[in-house]
Amino acid sequence: MKNANKIIRVILGIALLTFGLDKFLAFVPHGHVMTEELMTAYQGLMANKFIMPSVGIVEILSGILLIIGRYTTVALTAMIPVTFGILGFHLAVDLPGIIPGLIIAAMHTYLIFSKRSIFVVFIKELDAV
Q: Quick check: 115 and 76 in contact, CB under 8 A?
């Protein structure tokens, strides 16, 4: 079980680092799989000079933390809204392309669930504030 967690953590970290860096370096080809509607939605996101760079930074930092195995709870927590955004984007605009997003969400959910005791304490502490 511990090896599975490590493998999933590193794979998720590599995926996040790759897609985070792509937000700045644009090395993953997207145009060949994008419909006109999807391309318009993606260009709209890229036109905003704040959202996608912010998502990219969160993905890069979370990916690095997951790969090196430090502060993984922080990385997993920071990635929650990004994972929702990935799924929301694909549900709204690119349903056929949702499979990679579902894989990311499944790995993310698995890792959060594997650390559920930490998250339970975290939530209880927040509730006490």
A: yes
* Cβ pair 19, 42 in contact under 8 A: no
The reported pTM is: 0.83
Supply the DSSP symbol for 1.
-
What's the rounded Cα separation, in Å, for the pair 81 and 58?
10
Give the confidence band of 33 by pLDDT, cuts at 50, 70, 90.
low
SS3 90: helix
Q: Mark 8-18 as b/e (b = at least 16 C-beta within 10 Å).
A: bbeebbebbbe
What pLDDT shows up at residue 126? 79
8 near 107, Cβ under 8 Å?
yes
Res 31: pLDDT: 56
Residue 39 CA to residue 23 CA, distance in Å, equals 15
Contact 90, 51 (CB under 8 A): no
